[in-house]
Design goal:
Layout: H1 2-19, H2 45-56, H3 59-65, H4 71-88, H5 91-104, H6 110-116, H7 125-135, H8 140-159, H9 168-179, H10 184-195, H11 202-217, H12 221-233
Helix pairs in contact: 1-4, 1-7, 1-12, 2-8, 4-8, 4-12, 5-8, 5-11, 5-12, 6-11, 9-12, 10-11
Length: about 240
């Protein structure tokens, strides 16, 4: 389950990692300004500008993240930052990212939704374009929460922020509560899709991933936070 959750978060945030880069070469050693892709009239502009200003205003972040990397390099580097953010940031920040992702999945077609939850080690440009469109259709407040997590995760990695270990007793309780949402044939369908995502039917895998993230958003505050931290950390 956690691997699917992690893949979904990485794909969602890599959309932004490619979207804001200023340049079109496959590899550049030149540090450039990050640009806001949305016009001032867009409801997504303000949150995007906070992200842009946060990167451009921090020399450490600008030198590390504002260049144009190879697809594999960008994927690997941002995965590391997101994991650090998940281990170090406050629980509500992580829940904001989980909720935003959950809201975006219904805007994808079934095949794209399933692809979000299939493991990969490179960035998929076609899926990126579809995911970007889906994320642009969620309420601006959720989009802003995702951007807030993204920026804070990059800062946490640059700062080598202290990690907050997951309380194993709380995690066990949260997983038990989450599992109770699946009963009978739904439990079996979920287990089959999660157990073999590479070969699961698109409809089954999309359903499993979507219900997983949506189910987390319906849980109590403590369960939401512990599952978000555990899931986005990707270990």
């Amino acid at each position: 389950m956690k691997k699917l959750f992690w893949i979904a978060v990485v794909i969602a945030l890599l959309v932004f990692g490619k979207r804001w880069m200023d340049g079109d070469t496959s590899l550049s050693l030149v540090t450039v300004d990050v640009k806001n892709p949305y016009p001032s009239s867009s409801p997504l502009h303000a949150a995007s500008q906070r992200f842009v200003d946060g990167i451009n205003g921090d020399p450490r972040l600008k030198s590390r993240y504002s260049g144009v990397f190879t697809q594999r390099g960008l994927y690997a580097d941002i995965k590391t930052a997101l994991a650090r953010g998940a281990k170090s940031l406050d629980g509500p920040v992580l829940v904001g990212a989980t909720t935003a992702l959950s809201r975006s999945l219904p805007h994808l077609d079934t095949h794209s939704c399933a692809q979000v939850f299939r493991e990969r080690d490179t960035f998929d440009k076609a899926l990126s374009a579809r995911m970007k469109t889906a994320l642009e259709q969620i309420p601006p407040a959720h989009h802003a929460a995702l951007m807030d997590f993204y920026l804070k995760a990059l800062v946490a990695e640059a700062d080598n922020a202290p990690e907050r270990p997951v309380d194993q007793a709380q995690l066990k309780s949260a997983l038990t509560n989450l599992g109770q949402q699946y009963q009978g044939r739904f439990a079996q369908r979920f287990a089959d899709a999660m157990g073999n995502p590479a070969n699961a039917a698109d409809e089954d895998l999309c359903w499993a991933g979507t219900t997983l993230l949506h189910g987390i958003t319906l849980m109590g505050p403590n369960d939401r936070q512990v599952l978000s931290r555990w899931g986005i950390a990707g270990e």
